[in-house]
Design a protein that fits this description.
Blueprint (H helix, E strand, L loop, with lengths): L8 H8 L2 H19 L7 E8 L3 E8 L3 H8 L1 H8 L10
Antiparallel strand pairs: 1-2
Helix pairs in contact: 2-4, 3-4
Length: 93
């Protein structure tokens, strides 16, 4: 039996920009931010910045001049994402 189907790109786009995905992404970003707080010195400012491209997205920012060193040395953001059940992959440049 052959099954034919077509991807409804407009429908997928609508879902990815929708409130449910936005809520999921914001929740995961908040979880990552909370995990980062446990890995960096107390009082370090951690920000969640939601945005939208072709889908809901968010950035977790460690607002400290030492943040790049913490990530390079200890992988604080990578570890925090892992604790939230996310997988971090390197992108090609």
């Amino acid at each position: 039996m052959l099954i034919e189907w077509r991807l409804d790109a407009a429908g997928v786009r609508e879902i990815l920009k929708g409130d449910e995905v936005r809520s999921l992404i914001d929740g995961l970003a908040s979880n990552v931010a909370d995990n980062v707080k446990a890995l960096v010195p107390s009082g370090t400012t951690i920000e969640v910045r939601p945005y939208t491209t072709d889908r809901g997205a968010a950035t977790v920012v460690v607002a400290n001049p030492q943040a790049m060193a913490w990530q390079a040395r200890d992988g604080v953001l990578t570890r925090a994402a892992g604790f939230a059940g996310l997988e971090v992959k390197a992108t090609e440049r």
